[in-house]
Design goal:
single chain, 362 residues, alpha+beta, SH3 type barrels, 3 domains, five-stranded antiparallel beta sheet, three-stranded antiparallel beta sheet, 8 strands, Small-conductance mechanosensitive ion channel
Amino acid sequence: MADIWSYFLPDEGDIFYLFWAKQMLISVLIVGAAYLVSRFAALLVARVAHRVNQVTKGEWDEPTLARICAPLLALVNTAGLYVAIRRLPLPERLHLVISGILFIVNICLLATCAYRLMDEALKRYGKRLAGEEMSRQLIPLVQKIGSIFLFGTALIITLKHFNYDILSLVTALGVGSLAIGLAAKDTLANMISGFTLMIDLPFRIGDRIQLGSQVGEVIDIGLRSTKIKSLDNSYLIVPNSELCNTLLINQDLPDSRGKGKVVLGVAYGTDVMLAKRVLVDTAKAVPGVLAEPAPEAFFTSFGDSALNLTLLFWTESYTTVFGVTDRVNCAILESFAQNGINIPYPTRTVFFEKDTNHAPQN
């Protein structure tokens, strides 16, 4: 009787194969389910991308969102494969190797997705926030810093997963950063100042600025220094830390109009109101002088030999102030001559008093 039942009951080898077949079937189903979930997620992403494309008017189009979400969809498949292999009754050492490889792949996919999201955001909003020229300096640096941060984060998570002591690594990185910071403190100060200039925008590329006695046009704003072309065509390279801590004048802000000034004196006894009116009318007639704001003349002080007047006028650009001032001076000479207004030379009268007390007697 026992022999009959043993015919129907499977032996130990059959039980082992049945168990393996069951586990393999469940693992295959898990992998298939993960694949179906990834395909469904891909369709959902495509539908969402179409809506987002309409809302953002093409800023975030379907290929862009697909590029960002592609690592996430691959992550679903690798996560399913990770779960499927973890439940198989494999040797422990083989389990550790395969699960470790899949964990590293998942971390790399997450870091890739984060990097692509950062890259697309910088491409679309970097120029809008920092400007065309400054983004050329700022965006590559942000990309490099972001890449280093993502790589370091992925490395620390991976080491932590494999039970490595990351405290010593973090400590070494902190000490190394401190040493580098102390050794390159001036460079770091200039770089931080460069970020400040790019964000605060006290001047732009092409603006004319006055820095102490130097006046020039901003050619380039770098991370370490700013390059300025002076009026005598020399090339100034100024560290950014000095620009952040120095009083400077931006002649292009709030606009590029230039202000001219002519200071002169008229003889005592001259009709001051007539002289002021002649100055204003003469300036208005000179080409290049703006009608608005209108030229103004002021009686500023009493001089030793003249009544001092000041004429103020505006030009379309600060680059034309010298040329317009020349024309205004020539026109003033002609107008004063026509109206009988004299510009006196400095004079001095000396009185000699005869000393009668010590005069020689005959």
